[in-house]
Amino acid sequence: MTEMNQAMLGQDVIAAGTGRMGTLTAVNADATIQITVDGPAESAFTIPVSWVQSTANDKITLNHTVEDVQSYTPPA
Asked: In this predicted model, what pLDDT tens digit does every residue of 39-50 receive, in sequence order?
């Protein structure tokens, strides 16, 4: 699993197959991260850290698509 930490807050998040989708806004203790997606209706999504493919060049690249992020439901 890719190491994530608070120092990465504010970095761009890139979804698989697309360009920039938003910004990292939280690294949570339960092995999830929060992404705030840009747009007129700013939205935040929480996804597993395991979805992070790389953190190179001050960009967080996911191995899932924007649609995956938007439709993910954390386990209860």
From this structure: 777 799 999 999
